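Study this one:
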Amino acid sequence: MNLLALDTSTWTAGVAVFRDGRLLVELGREERQSHGYGLFPLLEEALARASCSFSDLEAVAVSVGPGSFTGLRIGLAVAKGIAFSGGLPVVGVPTLAALATLAEPLEGERVSPVLDARKGEVYTALYRLEDGGRLFEDIPPCAVPLELWLRRIEGPCVFIGDATGVFPEWSRERSDWRFLPHRPCAAAVGRIALERLERGELDELSDLEPLYVRPSEAEIGSGKR
């Protein structure tokens, strides 16, 4: 199976191509304006390096958030367009779950992916690995002040994401906590999607929406929740 995976949840756009479960190519590019400018060239370059064309694709995976509102909309629009035009199955993968799989926790550690949500908040969740490495969600994705979130975490934990660099000094003194600076990546999205495809878990194209976890600026301005 030829799988295309996309991640546009942060300012770094990611594209990965898998064939029969093996990662062939992964490319990333940081954008200063919008993923609408650079995503397609990046996608075309990744397919060319994998000696794969759009017509060769058999499934599409995309990161659904939380993350950059505009980035998520662009990534989903591109993924949906490719899936619709090719009649391909599509799998939406939560950004934080994909990031958590990169943490490689030690025995007894839980995983907390942390992405900068601005406004003094982080996008985060809490996971544990059980049953041969399968990810389980203890606390679902949310947007929360960093200090408040850290006060909720008990026991060994590995924090992974682009917000680990702004953690308060007191948190660094916790001997049972580890900190891994990392950004979401398309390869992690693709690996989760492949596992879901093997289990027959697909998303309806018309139902696939971004996971925002908090209202947009426009909704805040209009008083919507």
Remarks:
- The first strand starts at residue 2 and ends at 7.
